[in-house]
Amino acid sequence: MKKKSTYLLFISILLAFSLCSLPSFSQDRGDTPLRLAVAGTTHGHLGEVATRIGRGDFEVVGVAEPNEKYLHDNVLVGKVPADRFYTDLGKMLDETKPEVVVAYGSILSHMEVVEACAPRHIHVMVEKPLATTYKQARKMEALARKYGIMVLTNYETSWYSTNHEVKRLVEEGSIGRIDRINVYDGHEGPREIGCDEKFLEWLTDPILNGGGAVIDFGCYGANLATWLLDGKAPQSVYAVLQRNKPQVYPKVDDDATIVLSYPGTTVQIMGSWCWPTGRKDMYVYGERGYYYQRTGNRMSGLVAGKPVPEYTATPLKAPYDDSFRYLKAVVRGEITLSPKDLASLENNILVVRILDSAIKSAKTGKAVKLK
Q1: What is the spatial distance between Cα 142 and Cα 338, in angstroms, rounded to a whole number?
Q2: How does the average pLDDT of the chain come out, rounded?
Q3: Residue 59 — φ and ψ, nearest 5°?
Q4: Which of the 8 DSSP states describes residue 97?
Q5: Of 254, 256, 250, nearest in space to 268 by CA
Q6: What is the pLDDT of residue 12?
Q7: In this structure, what is the dihedral angle of CA atoms 142, 143, 147, 153, given to the nearest 10 degrees?
């Protein structure tokens, strides 16, 4: 009897130890790095992946780049094991089995990435904008719905504390209903600021990028306006696209002005490769004042006739402060992606519809009405 009791005690201790040693499911999902793969290596924003490798929130399990030269000449070489680089996207997905793919090729290639990932039930995050045409965006939406994946779009401005501060203040009613939004985005030009040739190859191509400055920088204003106006579509889109530097950018526009008309609200988006300096700022005007989002963390304004001196907006808290932390939280189900979020498919389908309409408007000289 004594031997039996000792034996049962031994088994109980062993079982308890074994259970304590096993990680829980939530730990497995939440604490382990996100299995992330990269599709394309020609986008200048690829450096955002390279600078975050080793941080712990994701692991690059595979890199796909169809161009053999670029496959061995990009910022991930030396940071990702050599055997994780592939020329074939499908093979990379099947062998590395990522949870999500981030796209860093041309905007046109986003369609190919979603077509490859959706049937494999792999989520996707693309660099802005979602697609080159509205027709493409709707195809991507259909694939996402059919296979139950998320397709997110990443913008630098999504992680600006000032943009979120402006939205909070507007929702509190401090300046009343929004009358006007003026958004300024761009720089001196991609060639002028030193973008490399593999990036310029498609960034300045009307098919691979969908356009010039109208796509590259017009998307920011469309994204923010859609977000600030609670997902509403404009009644009409009017645009003027200029080619101020045809000797530098012979195939695409380098300056875009887009006017969106809503009931009681006008949005003016100015995206350009002709600014004398880089900028991503925005004015939001209401009935009782305005806010000026000056930089990613500095802002000022005027409320009820009283100036709001320039100040630093409250920093965003993780995971809302960084695209990869946010991506992991969404994919792992720690937070829910709302249809009204800056990264959402719904917001970004409308963004592409606005850009598509802007290009059509510029060709005809007339406003395009959205039903």
Answers
A1: 18
A2: 93
A3: -125, 130
A4: -
A5: 256
A6: 44
A7: -100
